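Researcher: Re-running this chain for the archive, since the previous output was lost when a drive failed. Same request as before.
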Amino acid sequence: MTKNINEQSLLIEEMLKMSKVKEGERVVVVTTHEYNQEDLRDYRIALDRFGTESVHVVLPPRAKGTKLVQPGTALFYDIAVQADFLLFPLSSCAGEKPLLPSTHHKVVIEFLQKGGRALHVQSPLSKVREMWPTEEIISRTLAGAKLMEEAETIRIASKSGTNLTMNKKGRPAHTQYGVADVPGRWDNFAFGCVSCTPLENSANGTLVLEPPGAISPLVRFISEPVKLTLKDGYITSIEGGLEAKLLGKWLEQWGDPESYGTSHVGWGTHDKAGVGTGGGWLNLVSYLHNAYGTLLIAFGDSYHPRTAKYSGGEGQRESASHCDIGGMEVDFYLDDRLICSEGRIVDPECR
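Model: Regenerated structure tokens:
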């Protein structure tokens, strides 16, 4: 196997070292039916060099009626809960949204609650190096998480008319900074963000989405303003042009009132993330979740018990859908403390 070592396998090895993968650990590598064989070869090389006991599980898509549902069967989950580490490499060769088990899935949560670790890699390996989780990114993310955890209220405001408040009292902070190094931790490699799950019925006010905002399930950036009105934790109206109509139709198709409920909210901490990182859905994911000082807010499923410090937001909402929206240049307050302003982190402690 040594003769097959190449630069990419060494990169993967370095990446996994950050999550403290070690000899003797049981690692399950999970992909969809569509995956890059060269990438998976290099993952195998890296895992062999660690001396792990690893297997590759391929999950084809599953559907219920006309809708795709969570892939994976009881057999997969029987395998997963016996692992020490779940590794989800980017599956799609085309860079589209990977149809992999959600981290909100109860069996994945059970795996984490037992002390397992999980890492998603949602960026192409060719992009990983430039998005590497630096000490600065990790430090500012953890500093922001401390402030988020201590706060009781969140307020979001903007010159375009956003005025939205929500209560998070008692809810923990959740972070992503690319490392799953402690029992119970899940993360996304090359990500950087701080978030929390507000109390399910606490969001009230108006959220105005402006270009260059983005809506993840639509796989598109916003071209004209979209106005969301929220009452007691739910979207009650959606006003605007094309994107507003598309978002309304997307939410409506689930036939689930909880699709309109708040899920999580926070800000990006990655100074290398932004428009143009990746492509297609990957471009949106990087921008939505990570871009320095920008807002990420989600609606729908929020079920994610805390399984490690700063991992899991204790959300209670269960829904058939999850919709990430972000990129707005807004002011973000924790209690009365200004954290982000118009797309920049301004608080000195978490800049």
